[in-house]
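Worked example 3 (structure in, sequence out).
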């Protein structure tokens, strides 16, 4: 087997990174009073009600150093040894500073968001309502758990999240109503507003909200069907609208406020693997939808954090080969139909966005008024 030739500049960079390891290890040992490892499971278990500002700062600094180290090593080794970083196609920006918090991390989409962040070497604060989710399953993470802080908190009780969110770069809101987690009014509406207020108060750079396609179209069959479950669509759109008003008011009150939001409205969710950015279509106006894997919704949520084009925008997302007008998407999703090129051309709205990279996909999105 031929040994790969490592360029001198890469060797030098690796040596520099190696000198950082003792400092990171030493820092984590000094922080052992606050952070307790637990094998390959979640590294940190800090109950939100016991959180203190000092703990949040210590956790954030430790997370950032480890994340920077892992990300740098991965980036250097990938081209040398032909390794895949799993995100080479999708990386739109190199994250700098701060962890990303995920509320609803115990759910299907939330867990995918945590995994997507881990793959990028980004420190995560996974916020869950309880160790056991609404389906009776324990919260278990895959991948590198050393990047994850597991926090038990309640979005309907914002004081349980105030300290754990300190120092975060962004918050992904992936929570939704469930049998044990609360009804749509408490979770999808009030829970979102609670999180938005915390982001505004702490000047968190980006709030990413996972909503739903057809949420602004009460006359559509998709809206009517989903709304049978506790009026969830009604409360989702109420939450969207009030959250946007809160951000608008915050910017009017304080010109130096730099926070922004992104509302992601996925089509019918599937459990399949990620198909990648080239398979995705974005749209605005809530007139089209389709199907999309939770894994790719997570990719969109994570990448939008680092996109200026995605700031203060609302858009729908689905696979372009499943795109249908709202009036026909229900049956299409049910029977897993695909959309032909001819059909796609006949249903163009003029606001479709496609691209072979995340910057291209987000480019041209219209800002919310």
């Amino acid at each position: 087997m031929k040994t790969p030739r490592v360029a001198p500049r890469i060797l030098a960079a690796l040596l520099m990174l190696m000198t950082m390891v003792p400092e990171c290890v030493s820092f984590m040992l000094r922080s052992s009073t606050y952070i307790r490892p637990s094998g390959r499971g979640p590294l940190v278990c800090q109950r939100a009600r016991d959180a203190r500002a000092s703990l949040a700062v210590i956790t954030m600094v430790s997370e950032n150093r480890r994340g920077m180290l892992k990300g740098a090593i991965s980036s250097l080794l990938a081209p040398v040894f032909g390794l895949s970083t799993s995100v080479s196609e999708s990386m739109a920006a190199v994250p700098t500073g701060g962890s990303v918090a995920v509320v609803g991390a115990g759910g299907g989409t939330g867990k995918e968001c945590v995994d997507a962040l881990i793959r990028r070497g980004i420190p995560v604060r996974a916020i869950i309502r309880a160790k056991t989710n609404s389906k009776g399953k324990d919260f278990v993470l895959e991948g590198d758990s050393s990047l994850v802080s597991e926090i038990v908190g309640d979005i309907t009780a914002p004081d349980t999240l105030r300290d754990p969110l300190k120092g975060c770069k962004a918050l992904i809101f992936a929570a939704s109503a469930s049998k044990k987690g609360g009804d749509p009014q408490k979770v999808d509406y009030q829970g979102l507003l609670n999180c938005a207020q915390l982001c505004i108060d702490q000047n968190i750079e980006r709030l990413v909200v996972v909503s739903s396609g057809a949420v602004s179209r009460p006359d559509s069959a998709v809206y009517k069907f989903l709304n049978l479950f506790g009026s969830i669509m009604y409360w989702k759109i109420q939450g969207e609208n009030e959250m946007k008003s809160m951000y608008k008011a915050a910017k009017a009150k304080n010109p130096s406020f730099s926070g922004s939001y992104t509302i992601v409205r996925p089509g019918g969710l599937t459990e399949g693997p990620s198909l990648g950015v080239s398979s995705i279509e974005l749209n605005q106006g809530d007139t089209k939808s389709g199907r999309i894997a939770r894994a790719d919704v997570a990719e969109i949520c994570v990448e939008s954090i680092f996109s200026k084009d995605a700031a203060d925008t609302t858009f729908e997302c689905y696979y372009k080969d499943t795109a249908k007008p709202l009036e026909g998407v229900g049956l299409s999703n049910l029977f897993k139909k695909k959309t032909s090129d001819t059909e796609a051309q006949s249903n163009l709205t003029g606001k479709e966005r496609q691209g072979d990279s995340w910057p291209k996909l987000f480019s041209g999105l219209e800002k919310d008024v």
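Notes: The longest strand covers residues 260-266. Residues 1-95 have pLDDT under 50 and may be disordered.
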